[in-house]
Write a structure and sequence with these properties.
Blueprint (H helix, E strand, L loop, with lengths): L2 H4 L2 H12 L1 H4 L14 H20 L5 H14 L3 H20 L7 H17 L2 E6 L4 H7 L1 E2 L7 H13 L15 E3 L3 H10 L2 H7 L18 H15 L3 H18 L6 E7 L11 H6 L5 H9 L6 E3 L2 E2 L4 E6 L11 H47 L1
Antiparallel strand pairs: 1-4, 2-6, 3-5, 4-7
Helix pairs in contact: 2-4, 4-6, 4-10, 5-6, 6-7, 6-15, 7-15, 9-13
Length: 387
């Protein structure tokens, strides 16, 4: 859908700036739930992807795309808050709609109604709900269609992991009902991107959950740092005094799931489904928005594009004709962490070194004690002879 956009030289340049220039990604933000576990660079990137998707859905005009990307670059450079950037994007889309429809005074009811009807029909009526999913399932969904929760998983193991955490008063760490055959869609593009990159959430909640302890690395899983993931778990094990058997089981399940999730390259994978397939209401009154001429036209448009349905439950099957899949690249930091096999080897080496150190230390103490006793014996003998 926006594949041709992200291949453009100007968009590639903007992505490069977002990944390397702190002027583009170090911003204030208030999206704690939306961006949970997501680093600043990917937050900035998600907003760019959201902008391009909005442009495709609402404007869908190659003529104005050059100026749109230029405006995006300007917003990133000049504004210091992510929310202000999003507002600026919506304003520019509104301006392009006004130009496209050749609308004059937007304080006029008929002009406002024409503009708001157009955006409402494009973004809501003919728009999409999105589901962010793990990239390892992408190929099977393309071939077999989408069936809620009907894919390879280790749910039985994670039920047991949940029970183990419950034993140590970490209640429902996975935050998932594994018996329910349903997934969730959203009208929030940013949330869908975040869900894909840190999904599945029940796994993220085990290996990168800073709610369990503030010193947990909340970015460990998203940045694909297996070593940091294991450190997070070991910290939890230590703090809550997990038994050896429980530690072993959890580590085995975590490793199995990690290998499953990394069978293919990690992408931002989004399933887009037309809103009309869902039984949900938007509660948007276009006539009321058009009649309220005291409301700025940009605020009226924001009201339409504002996220209302963040968790739309879905439990049906979708055939290939019912959805589109978008796969986008995240920004990947170079991780110094080790691979699974290397982590296992390193732990074995550390254990051997530790055992040797303990044994050597014990032997050294005994040798010193023996030497001290011998010395005391010699001294005592000399004193006895002299006296």
């Amino acid at each position: 859908m926006i594949d041709e956009y992200v291949r453009r030289a100007d968009v590639k340049k903007l992505i490069e700036n977002i990944s390397s220039n702190d002027k583009y990604y170090l911003k204030n933000n208030e999206f704690s739930n939306v961006f949970l576990g997501i680093d600043d660079k990917n937050k900035a990137l998600f907003i760019l992807y959201e902008a391009l998707l909005k442009y495709k859905i609402i404007i869908n005009d190659i003529v104005h795309l050059d100026s749109f990307v230029e405006q995006l670059d300007l917003l990133y450079r000049k504004l210091s808050d992510f929310n202000d950037i999003i507002i600026g994007i919506n304003k520019f889309i509104t301006r392009l709609c006004i130009k496209k429809l050749n609308i004059g005074d937007t304080s006029n009811y008929l002009n406002r109604k024409l503009l708001l009807d157009y955006i409402y029909n494009a973004y809501i009526v003919n728009g999409y709900y999105l589901h962010g999913f793990s990239s390892c399932y992408s190929e099977s969904i393309k071939v077999l269609g989408f069936n809620a929760e009907d894919y390879e998983n280790y749910y039985d193991d994670f039920r047991q992991v949940n029970r183990i955490f419950n034993k140590y008063n970490i209640i429902n760490v996975c935050e998932k009902n594994f018996d329910r055959k349903e997934v969730y869609f959203t009208d929030n593009i940013l949330y869908a991107c975040s869900s894909s990159l840190r999904g599945p959430m029940y796994y993220y909640n085990i290996v990168s959950n800073s709610d369990i302890d503030k010193k947990i690395d909340a970015y460990a899983y998203v940045k694909d740092d297996y070593n940091a993931v294991i450190k997070n778990l070991k910290r939890i094990f230590y703090i809550y005094d997990f038994s050896e058997a429980d530690k072993k089981f959890i580590l085995e399940v975590v490793e199995k799931e990690w290998k499953l999730l990394h069978r293919s390259e990690k992408k931002i994978s989004l399933l887009l489904v037309k809103r009309r397939l869902f039984n949900s209401k938007d509660n948007i009154d276009i006539n009321k928005l058009a009649m309220n001429t005291e409301l700025d036209i940009n605020e009226a448009v924001d009201n339409i594009m504002y996220s209302r349905n963040n968790r739309v439950a879905f439990s049906q099957r979708l055939d290939a004709d019912d959805f589109e899949i978008i796969e986008l690249d995240p920004i990947k930091e170079k991780v110094e962490g080790l691979k699974i096999e290397e982590v296992d080897l390193k732990e074995k080496e550390e254990k051997i070194a530790y055992d040797f150190q303990n044994n050597y230390g014990s032997a050294t103490v005994l040798l010193l004690a023996g030497a001290l006793l011998v010395s005391l014996g010699v001294i005592a003998t000399i004193l006895f002879v002299l006296l």
